Amino acid sequence: xxxxxxxxxxxxxxxxxxxxxxxxxxxxxxxxxxxxxxxxxxxxxxxxxxxxxxxxxxxxxxxxxxxxxxxxxxxxxxxxxxxxxxxxxxxxxxxxxxxxxxxxxxxxxxxxxxxxxxxxxxxx
Amino acid sequence: xxxxxxxxxxxxxxxxxxxxxxxxxxxxxxxxxxxxxxxxxxxxxxxxxxxxxxxxxxxxxxxxxxxxxxxxxxxxxxxxxxxxxxxxxxxxxxxxxxxxxxxxxxxxxxxxxxxxxxxxxxxxxxxxxxxxxxxxxxxxxxxxxxxxxxxxxxxxxxxxxxxxxxxxxxxxxxxxxxxxxxxxxxxxxxxxxxxxxxxxxxxxxxxxxxxxxxxxxxxxxxxxxxxxxxxxxxxxxxxxxxxxxxxxxxxxxxxxxxxxxxxxxxxxxxxxxxxxxxxxxxxxxxxxxxxxxxxxxxxxxxxxxxxxxxxxxxxxxxxxxxxxxxxxxxxxxxxxxxxxxxxxxxxxxxxxxxxxxxxxxxxxxxxxxxxxxxxxxxxxxxxxxxxxxxxxxxxxxxxxxxxxxxxxxxxxxxxxxxxxxxxxxxxxxxxxxxxxxxxxxxxxxxxxxxxxxxxxxxxxxxxxxxxxxxxxxxxxxxxxxxxxxxxxxxxxxxxxxxxxxxxxxxxxxxxxxxxxxxxxxxxxxxxxxxxxxxxxxxxxxxxxxxxxxxxxxxxxxxxxxxxxxxxxxxxxxxxxxxxxxxxxxxxxxxxxxxxxx
Amino acid sequence: xxxxxxxxxxxxxxxxxxxxxxxxxxxxxxxxxxxxxxxxxxxxxxxxxxxxxxxxxxxxxxxxxxxxxxxxxxxxxxxxxxxxxxxxxxxxxxxxxxxxxxxxxxxxxxxxxxxxxxxxxxxxxxxxxxxxxxxxxxxxxxxxxxxxxxxxxxxxxxxxxxxxxxxxxxxxxxxxxxxxxxxxxxxxxxxxxxxxxxxxxxxxxxxxxxxxxxxxxxxxxxxxxxxxxxxxxx
Amino acid sequence: xxxxxxxxxxxxxxxxxxxxxxxxxxxxxxxxxxxxxxxxxxxxxxxxxxxxxxxxxxxxxxxxxxxxxxxxxxxxxxxxxxxxxxxxxxxxxxxxxxxxxxxxxxxxxxxxxxxxxxxxxxxxxxxxxxxxxxxxxxxxxxxx
Lengths: 124, 597, 234, 144
Ligand SMILES: Cc1cc2nc3c(=O)[nH]c(=O)nc-3n(C[C@H](O)[C@H](O)[C@H](O)COP(=O)(O)OP(=O)(O)OC[C@H]3O[C@@H](n4cnc5c(N)ncnc54)[C@H](O)[C@@H]3O)c2cc1C
Ligand code: HEM
Ligand code: SF4
Ligand code: F3S
Ligand code: FES
Fold this sequence. Notes:
The complex is a heterotetramer of chains A (124), B (597), C (234) and D (144).
Chain A: H1 9-14, H2 20-47, H3 49-60, H4 62-87, H5 95-123
Helix pairs in contact in A: 2-3, 2-4, 4-5
Chain B: E1 4-12, H1 16-28, E2 31-35, E3 51-52, H2 63-73, H3 80-99, E4 114-121, E5 128-133, H4 139-153, E6 157-160, E7 162-170, E8 173-181, E9 186-197, H5 218-225, E10 230-231, E11 236-243, H6 253-256, E12 260-262, H7 270-273, H8 283-298, E13 306-309, H9 312-322, H10 336-342, H11 344-354, E14 363-372, E15 376-377, E16 383-385, E17 392-398, E18 403-404, H12 416-438, H13 450-460, H14 468-482, E19 486-487, H15 489-506, H16 520-544, E20 553-554, H17 562-565, E21 567-574, E22 577-584
Parallel strand pairs in B: 1-2, 1-9, 2-6, 9-17, 15-18, 19-20
Antiparallel strand pairs in B: 3-5, 4-5, 7-8, 8-9, 10-21, 11-14, 12-13, 13-14, 16-17, 21-22
Helix pairs in contact in B: 1-4, 1-12, 2-3, 3-12, 5-16, 14-15, 14-16, 15-16
Chain C: E1 2-9, E2 19-26, H1 33-44, E3 63-66, E4 69-72, H2 78-81, E5 84-88, E6 95-97, E7 100-101, H3 104-111, H4 134-139, H5 157-161, H6 168-178, H7 186-193, H8 207-211, H9 218-231
Parallel strand pairs in C: 1-5
Antiparallel strand pairs in C: 1-2, 3-4, 3-5, 6-7
Helix pairs in contact in C: 3-6, 6-7, 6-9
């Protein structure tokens, strides 16, 4: 009896916290994305030959590159925030500001990069 | 039979008293604690100010002084043997709590910090003394947590969210309790040799109250139905400083730290009513003073409230006037930081519920129904006594706010309740376990569930004309307005009639919810039944006592009358009709005399 | 003023999933959300189920999601949340009836923290209190305020993902004892928290701190526990 | 009365637990990756990245300064990149990132696998994955 405890992605995202869920989930996606990318990349370089070229094709696709860049940039910036706050719990008071700062860094950097990659991708 | 559990001792209620009893009983007997709330939700957690003991950590203090203050506070209605017992045990009780890990605030020497509280005095100088040991303004919370934690450590058996519905007695002896598992709606029989009731008070019979929704007098009502009397039910404490309209308590600790009461004209009025201790007079005195100010048109903006002021500049100004100093004799100087640090929860309440900051603004307050002095009569070992000769009911115990030992008499001193919980909770637990060692289990009746089931069924099957919410609102209004701080014959009679009318209407109450899982509607209706039973006893006892004493003050009988009324009231339920009797007050050291602060 | 309240309803005996029911009532902006719920239960639909007791934010009974955020219904006024109110049960625990969730897993995690004072050394010879400086007492003051309402744990993304995680409330309890200079079992608790479902599960999401009605800086407390693990200083 | 300060041994404070060690490693490796990436980035700039290369090239270089990555840029002289020093640097970055990433996968897997057995399997798989990734990556870097 009773409803299960599952919290779906959409329910979680609708929780009106201090963007905690968003950064948490994006950090995860970023980490996972990179992990997958790196494995594929190493695999392709290691195997070489036909499969290598095929795999290369996937991640050299410009859309995939934007995704990877998103993963890298977000994960790196958010990871730095987590690292600093974890190693200096005193700074946690400034959590809200830290998240603001994070977005302030991420959005322009990612915007520019996405523009560069996509225009290069579309132009080619 | 399904759902039968067997324990030597069963404790009903997991507040301070119930947990202390459970802890001590479980050391010597197989013990279960059942509670309709998860233990840490008990109302002991709401207690703010402190627990009293003559530790003397700041200045000289003695258990005898504590005793005298308590006797005087009770308006001489408290039983002095029990009071002496409690005050002597107080020091060890508080130290024991500390040894259990309770995080008391500390003095610069690292000892338990103490603060002044209403009615606590140095008997030689008459000045306030620091007797209330405290953990910020959440002492009760810390006691509740600490005791629950110790119970976990000692593997006490808990039945969380089980509501006791009935007491089972066989041949005039205790046989156990009946309870419903709220989460499943199943009825359970808990077969026991000893039962300890620690179900808290019944402040929910009043409109404006500091009490929890759970304060519905379950224990008292259950026992009343089994022919056990209730003692001194007319004595109900109105705490002077509840948040206007909401009734949420602002601890006396605020005045202990130097806060003062200010009327609508901006004057400090307590010196008029209590020249020596002023704002720190005992609660009944302060509540009446506020009420008088309001009645005489000096409430704020003509409304039913006055101000409580803890702004440092006010406090320091009056500290100079009162000659208040620090323990080392230096000038008393309260800072905004100290207010924040010593009264964090109060600041929080004001911000949330009033939208004001007490450091810069005054708090609008009004007296609020707060504490049940009366209750299930017991002796100082927590044994329930059922008549004027103090005959013990075998295997039945009570402790905490639901019990009447009586150490609080006509008026409880602040911080004495928490002390009452730990002292008498402990002894009730010990005695209950001791009794269980010698006694045998009574044979359960064939169907112990029958009666409770019938009661439940009749609630569910009422004609459904009456609404629980309306009935309880009417009850609370009648009781607050007519059996409140000031009482008179006419109003009380009308309240009593009202309660009786409501009791009749209650028979037709509507319960729509037919479910089993967390059927809170049914349980609320059942609780309303208890409130009505208890309210009738309160109104009737109050109407009967023709004098003013402690929390019971009558406009038509403004004086205390020791000749006729220095006695406890006992009320029995005899087949649905209430009967009144009396019991002598035990007086040992202190003869009654006029009570001035 | 008119208040529109949308409440999550789930009747375990007839429903397979929850649904929302909207009530319109007259109320005051100074009413607590709890008062609003009481009124609806009293006058509109008695079957509405929720827990409550103290009505002023000290017992921890009535944690729920109000307008999408964990709060205590008794500590939230209509004026703080506006006249359109959505009330839902807290997340990450099994819903058993309307706004009531099964709290057992939450308390089980609490109980794993050795949530009691441990000091087996002899008491002071004079039988008096164990001494503690004002600073030592202040060290863990904040975490003693916890009322186990579960607002924090049920707002934690990590707990949503994984119910095995002990959760912030349990760590707050552990913090209260680890940093109590009188307690002697800091090491045992740190070792419990060093396990897979302990503090490593906290990803500094901060929802917990934001949700705590007692204004405990939960993430900071967790951070202090993490640092105690690294440095060994308690 | 003095304020008490205690210091716990490594075992007492839980630092001998795998989970705690990895928690610390995740953070330290994050810092290490920043350091190594910055190092590569600066090297790229010093070697003329400003005017000969596009954005993607710089990134590639920064994140893994090995020969294959640099060959695809316009930097005229790739010879220094075949040195043992740069090879080791690249392998260090590979090692750190892989260990960090794979443990991250374990953390995520733990969140969705509650059974002890399942967790064991996930861990085993991740160790295999980590070892093979590092080995394969190292071979690529070393031989290129
Ligand atoms: C706001 C406030 C502040 C206070 N401040 C102070 C103070 O500073 N100092 C002081 O000394 N005193 C203070 N008091 C008074 C004191 O806190 C209470 O009198 C005392 O805590 C009562 O404790 P108890 O154990 O009797 O009851 P509670 O702690 O209320 O426990 C009652 C228990 O009984 C259970 N229960 C009730 N009915 C049933 C049933 N039918 N079946 C099963 N279980 C049931 C409940 O679940 C609960 O666990 C204050 C009171 C209030 C309201
Ligand atoms: C500058 C680079 C990086 C930084 C600063 C960084 C930082 C972090 C931090 C601090 C965490 C811990 C999060 C937590 O436990 O709360 C983390 C987790 C993780 N990282 Fe990284 N990281 C970086 C690069 C990488 C790379 C290259 C990968 C992929 C191979 C990766 C994959 C992961 C994964 C999968 C997790 C687990 C995510 C989770 O627990 O939700 N990271 N990272
Ligand atoms: S830490 Fe705060 S939010 Fe969490 S349970 Fe305790 S009081 Fe509630
Ligand atoms: S929300 Fe959860 S992840 Fe950590 S900071 Fe709070 S416990
Ligand atoms: S009812 Fe007690 S916290 Fe809300």
